[in-house]
């Protein structure tokens, strides 16, 4: 009995969930930059703003960055896979990637040898530029039938949080029921079936259109055609204009026929350095005629147009059903040589052996932190509660204080503006009283 219990305990340990938690409290220890020539960007470890612990920072704009670390033990997605990381976009995200590649385990891989085509198991995280705004979730799946490796992209992924606060992104891949979920700040933003929500599909269709099948030359796929027996009516005038002058219109009263719409600016003066020999005769700029602003119009009055009731446009024969129509042509279906039913696709995406941040960005001030690679949802939740939630409290407080300060400054500015208005009004009253007194004194002086 004891021996059986011991064996059972060993079995449980063998399938126990793995959990890797990577942070940058000790700087870049354990991480190495790639020696790839194009990746000239160099990450640094700094404390973001008013937070307490260091994170991995993108210090410079418009550069390629590549850095990675090898895990002590690969994490197997066949036991579920949970990926998570913190991202703070200190200066926003206008154009760049801020995702993480979870590299496929390979004993030959070294961080210095990281390249943009280094095989990965999952690519997950923020990416925004132009019309692109998504939280990527891409799995590299190997067909158990053909051995072909193909990227499977999540359809309609969530949007990126682009403010300057720290957000935590979580991807959950469940091998038990072939489902997934994407969380932002612990809130589920997208969830569903691996078989339904990824493209191309993990299980290719049973049949495909025959690429060798060609549409016959005599195939008619026009459902309707112009009626060959139709004739243009005798009274159809194709030359009739769309609009004609409105004979019922009358010139508005007060129309200034002799006034131009624009006149010379009376306040304009010829520049002192104007040279008529080189610059020609100087002419003042034009302005709208002030007289026209109070009148219904200026200049020559023209009768407006109205729609022509006789207009019919170019005649064309009405459409009728095509007697030769055979329907929409489609190539015949043939068995798909790549068709396979993979009941457990997470067993064919490879174990995660390393984490890499391989990006190009036009921004700076990104901060990555608290990268989790695990088989346990609970482990990711614990890390989120321990590391991200304290950051959220600090940043929410700062945001609230900034909001209150802005409101106070706006209120103060409004009050000072009111005082200025009262002061001006009081000054105006004093000036008016002074003018009245001077006028009275003048009248008195005249009488004397």
From TrEMBL:
Q: Which GO molecular-function terms appear in the entry?
A: calcium ion binding; unfolded protein binding
Record flagged with keyword Transmembrane: yes
Basic and acidic residues compositional bias, start-end: 323-342, 382-436
Compartments (UniProt record): Endoplasmic reticulum membrane
Q: Tell me the GO BP annotations in alphabetical order.
A: ERAD pathway; protein folding
Q: Which Pfam families match?
A: Calreticulin (PF00262)
Q: Which UniProt keywords apply?
A: Chaperone, Disulfide bond, Endoplasmic reticulum, Membrane, Signal, Transmembrane, Transmembrane helix
Which is a Gene Ontology cellular component entry for this protein?
endoplasmic reticulum membrane
Question: What's its membrane topology?
Answer: Single-pass membrane protein
The Acidic residues compositionally biased stretches are: 236-246, 255-265, 273-282, 437-448
Segments carrying the region annotation (Disordered) are 197-345, 382-448
SS bonds (residue pairs): 95-129
Q: Which Gene3D superfamilies match?
A: 2.60.120.200, Calreticulin/calnexin, P domain (2.10.250.10)
Secretion signal, residue range per the UniProt entry: 1-19
Instruction: Give the chief site where it resides.
Output: endoplasmic reticulum
Organism domain of life: Eukaryota
> Which family does this protein fall into?
Belongs to the calreticulin family.
Do you know which PANTHER family this protein is assigned to? CALNEXIN 14D-RELATED, CALRETICULIN AND CALNEXIN
Q: What is this protein called?
A: Calreticulin
User: Which organism's genome codes for this protein?
Assistant: Chlorella ohadii
């Amino acid at each position: 009995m004891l021996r059986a219990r011991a064996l059972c305990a060993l079995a449980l340990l063998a399938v126990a969930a793995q959990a890797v938690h990577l942070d940058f409290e000790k700087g870049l220890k354990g991480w190495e930059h790639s020696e790839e020539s194009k990746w000239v960007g160099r990450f640094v470890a700094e404390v973001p703003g008013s937070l307490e612990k260091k994170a991995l920072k993108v210090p410079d704009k418009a550069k390629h960055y590549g850095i990675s670390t090898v895990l002590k033990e690969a994490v197997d997605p066949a036991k579920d896979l949970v990926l998570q990381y913190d991202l703070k976009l200190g200066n926003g995200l206008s154009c760049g990637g801020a995702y993480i590649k979870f590299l496929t385990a390979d004993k030959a891989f070294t961080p210095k040898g990281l390249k943009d085509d280094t095989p990965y198991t999952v690519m997950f995280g923020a990416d925004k530029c132009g019309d692109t705004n998504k939280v990527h979730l891409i799995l590299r799946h190997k067909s158990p039938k053909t051995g072909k490796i193909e990227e499977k992209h999540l359809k309609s992924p969530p949007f990126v949080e682009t403010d300057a606060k720290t957000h935590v992104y979580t991807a959950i891949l469940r091998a038990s029921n072939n489902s997934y979920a994407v969380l932002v700040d612990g809130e589920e933003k997208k969830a569903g079936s691996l078989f339904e929500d990824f493209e191309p599909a993990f299980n290719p269709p049973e049949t495909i259109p025959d690429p060798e099948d060609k549409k016959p030359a005599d195939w008619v796929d026009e459902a309707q055609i112009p009626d060959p027996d139709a004739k243009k009516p005798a009274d159809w005038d194709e030359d009739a204009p769309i609009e004609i002058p409105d004979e019922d219109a009358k010139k508005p009263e007060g129309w200034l026929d002799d006034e131009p719409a624009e006149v010379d600016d009376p306040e304009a003066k010829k520049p002192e350095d104007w040279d008529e020999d080189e610059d020609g005769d100087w002419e003042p700029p034009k302005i709208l005629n002030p007289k026209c602003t109070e009148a219904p119009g200026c200049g020559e009055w023209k009768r407006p147009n109205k729609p022509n009731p006789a207009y019919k446009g170019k005649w064309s024969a009405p459409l009728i059903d095509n007697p030769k129509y055979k329907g929409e042509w489609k190539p015949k279906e043939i068995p798909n040589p790549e068709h396979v039913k993979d009941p457990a696709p997470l067993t064919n995406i490879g174990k995660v052996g390393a984490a890499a941040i391989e990006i190009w960005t036009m921004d700076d001030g990104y901060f990555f932190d608290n990268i989790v690679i695990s088989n346990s949802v609970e482990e990711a939740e614990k890390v989120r509660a321990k590391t991200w939630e304290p950051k959220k409290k600090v940043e929410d407080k700062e945001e609230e204080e900034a909001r209150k300060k802005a409101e106070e400054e706006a209120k103060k500015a409004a009050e000072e503006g009111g005082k200025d208005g009262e002061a001006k009004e009081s000054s105006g009253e004093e000036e008016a009283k002074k003018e009245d007194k001077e006028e009275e004194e003048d009248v008195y002086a005249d009488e004397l």
